[in-house]
Structure formats: C-alpha cells, structure tokens
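To fix ideas, we quote verbatim one protein's residues and fold tokens.
>
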Amino acid sequence: MKDIRRKVRRAQTIVPFGVGGIIDLRGESFVAADIRSWAANAEQVDAPRLAKKLRVEGLRSAPVIPSGKAAFASRIGPVYVRFPKWLFCPQCRDMHLWTPDREVRDKQPACGRCPGKSQLAPMRFIQVCRAGHMADIDWRRWAHSKGEGHDQRQCQVRRLRFVATPESSGLEALRVICLACRAERSLAGVSQKNILKQMGLACSGTHPWQPESDEPDPCEETPQAVQRGASNVYFPITHSAIDIPAPTGLPEDDELTQKVVNHALWPEFKSSDGSPMSDVLRGALANLCEVPEEFVDTLRRRYADEAAAIPPTVEEDDDLSIDEWAAFSAPESVAGSKTFSVRRTHLGVRPDAPGSLQELAVGISSVVVADRVREVRALEGFSRYEPSSGDSDDGEGGRVVSVNTKTRAQWLPAMETYGEGVFVAVDEARLSAWERLAPVRDWTLRIERDMNASFKADRLRGKSGPELLPRFVMLHTLAHHFIRQLSYDSGYNAASLRERVYARSHAPGSELPPQAGVFIYTAAGDAEGTLGGLVRQGQPPHLAETLIRLLESAQWCSQDPLCADSTGRSLANLNRAACHACTLLPETCCEIENSLLDRTLLIGDGEVPGFFRGVVQAALEESAGAVDPA
C-alpha cells in the first residue's frame, strides 16, 4: 500500500481503532493492520506488572507526530489499509474493486468516468466470521446468484453497478447489477444468518491487511454478512493496570536506583537473567546511567528476591488487584513517586451530624484521594461477530485474534494515561457479617448460577475470583452509581470516568487479605493529567454528600417496578435490578461490560437487606421529619 496520510489520535490506536478495527474518515473506510506494520521506532511503555500478566516481553505505543509536521515526517505510525475494497461512485453508481497500485498519495479514490471525478464510497456490507476473519462480500457472485439462463450463471465479468430503485424502499431498493449479462439481485435478506453459506460462499480465512505471501487460515466457520459499522464487527480485548511504585525493598529515595529502574532498557535486562544478552544489557545500562555494573546486578537480584517472597497461593490473575489494593489500603507506605501520588482523607462527619451521615461513616472504613495516577492500557487482540468467551477455546463466542496474526506477539500495543481519582473502602467486619446473611447468600447464588451458564463466565471469573461474593455485585453497583453521581458533581461526564472494583474472592487457603473497595478515576493521554475535579469531590464535606445522594437516587428508577422486581436482565440474565435508566454506564466506564449489577444488594428490598439499607432508611426519616406538618 502506498503512503496515505490520515490523522488518528494515539489513544485511538488502542480503542476503538486498534488492530482489526474499522475507521471512517471523510467518506473513506480503513482497517488497522496488525503490529507487524508498526514502525520499529514505536515508543516503549514501562509497565512490567501488566506485561507479566499478559505474558509478553513489553508494551509499545504509537509514536506521536509533532503538531504541524505531518506533511514532512516519514511514515512512523501504524498502517491502516483501505477496506472494503469494493467501492462505488455515487453519481454513475459503477462499482470498482480498488487495488493498492491505484492509490495516489493524499488523494481519495475517485471515479474516472464522471465529470468532477466524484469520490468513491465504500460498500455498506462486509463479511465476518466467529474465527475473527473479515473480507469483502463477493459482489459478482451475489449479482449472479439468482441468474437466469446459461450466460448469466457462467458470467465471470466484474463490471458491476450498485443502483437504488425508487419503486421500493429499504434494502430491497438497493440492487447489484452485472453490466455484461444484466444479472441482478437486491440486498434484501443480505443480513440474514447463513445467507452467504446458501450461496456457496465460504470464509476466506484472511484479514484485510494480510499480504499475498501469507497463507490463508483453514476456516470452517460460516461467514456472516454484516454492516460495516455494526457493533458486532469488532470486539477489542483490552487490559489496564494502575502504575504502582517499586517494591518497598528498594530505596525509593536513591536517585541512582530510580535512574536505573526507570530506564527503557531495565525491563528487558530484568528478564534477561541467564541469557546471552544479559551482559550486553548490563553494560549498556551501566554506561547510560553512569553507575557500576555491580550496582545494576544488585538491583536485579533485589527485584528477584522481592518476587520470590510472594506467597505461592497468588494466582496470576490476582497480581494486579493485589498490588493496587495494598497501595490504596496503606497510602502512607507510598512516598516520592511521580506517577502515584495518594493521600488519606476522611468523610468529615462530625459527632453532631445527622443520623444518615453517622450511619454512612460507620460503613466506610477508608477514603483515599489520588492526586496523580498513571494507567497503562494494552490491546491483546479482538474477536468478531460474537464477543470472546474468555480463555476457553471450546465455549461459545468468537475466537480471540492476536494483534500479530502470523506469530505469537512478543509485545502489545499500549498507551499510558495520567489522571486522578477517589478510592473508598467499606468496613470489612460489617461487610463480612452482611455477607453471612442467608437472604444475601441465596440471592447472590442465583446470580452466580446465571454467570456460570453464560459464555462470559471465564472472563467474569477473572474479575470476581473463583467465587462470586455478594460484595462484588454490591460494590460494582456502588461504583456505577458513584460514577453517575460524580458526573453531576465533578465536572467530568460519565464516559470519561472509569471504575476499578476491589472485591475478589481468593482460592481456599490463600493468605491474601480480603478486598472491599472501589476506585473511581479519570485519565487522559496528556502527561499533565486532569483538572482536579475528582480530588475535590473526594474530600470533606463533598464526598459524604455525594454518597448520600447516590444512595437516595438508587432507590428509584423510571422503569420500576419492572426494574426493581427483575429476576434477570441484560445479556445472559447477568443483571438484576439494573437498567439503562438507573445503573448502566457507557462501555468505556465498566470493567466487565455492564454485567453483575443489582441495586437490591446495594439498598435492599422487602426480601434482601441491602448493605447500605440503614443509611437509606435514616435519610428517608430525616426527609420526612423536615416536612412541615402544617
């Protein structure tokens, strides 16, 4: 493909226009090629915890072209390939099968037959399959699929025209016509399941960016015709981690230590122990950081000792949440970090405060505001037509396609963002006593049964742990209402806020501490971070007022009683009393795609006592008492 310049923000190279994603730009349509197309000068992203979890050597982000320099810089960003290749002229309606040799730098495809050289438009429908492959529909085959006579059935000409007839409406009005034999077929029924299989079309086993030298994958999946902009064309699989400072065993105040461990070569050197590259990297680090080689070796041994001290019961999926929970639970142990600045605060509830605030203060054990956090988001792969079912290859759902479609990915595309947030932990003793109540346990077991029957079970287990605890559903629902309320109070819209729920269950016999908290934060690609609205709302008296208001609003939904009395909502019945009118959020906010939500466990009903039922009852009594009897 020739060099075509278009502008894409760095954050968009992960979601929504990461590897395999389709982007529309000024009437043109492109798909992001895999990471083999990335230039060698992609920038390293330091996130060893996330890289270890994803079993890759490192993370890289797309380089940024300086403002105003795009016309003069050589191609250094990811490649986006024109797709679909079948285009049509809006004036004469002739269809063109576009090829890379027809590309002209900085020019859009145009029709050479029409006056004014009208820009060609991409066809609306494409084909995808559950194995993640995507290709153009064979429109020549489609036009001749209902051919009459020998000449139409045997026609191999690709001179097609895409016309709109005024006699009908909808897809029936759109027709693909062969200009040679006059065979034609409307687009009516193109979106029906297995319509391409009925025509004898099989999956090509390819991706749009693959060169001809790549052999197609043997694919037995049935291709499905979908609209190019449909939501089921692309399901990105992303992971994120909060940057936690170095282990406490390292001298944080040692400038030389920080200089070495923050160097771009450090992650590679740390993992090269015993390899031939170890000596080379040690010398390079020592030379670049101006320290003795023995000093570099000592740091690596110290990190290895810290890793060996981790209990063997730690599951790999637990690593990220355990470190983050420990850092938020003991903010005093974190000092001097430029990327993780947290401090403890409080609700500010005075002894003479109203009963609802007193009840709230009893249930909240800790409040921490994060003036600055660094989050790294990485793209592992994607699926098509149906979301991935997780780690299981035999289950339902689409197959995960790696960001490197030829070999195992040694690194993943990622980006780093900076922001702020509020962490709230609930009292463990009260929470444990609440979880032991029979109605609470039985109610959660029903949700867990639906989760186990869902094709998303593996992925949800990765967040909830081996057992779905009532605290997870309750705190997840609290996080959603927290975000909705903060969108009114903090100045950030809901789509710019994100959640991290700390409520995992651990394997039997594990010595890991229990988790019970939520972290609501916002992060932007700008290294300067964000504006401080969340930090302000996390300090007294604002946070207590926000929590009271969100609990009051959680009592009511415009869809009640249908919402409140629901025994199963959303995909695979993974939600209970939660709908778009009261609880659900934009997909960018939620860790698990708006699943495992229930207002009942948060505020309670006649059958199940909610964890914050006492706060809600006290607030209602205060409101009733404030009404003038006269």
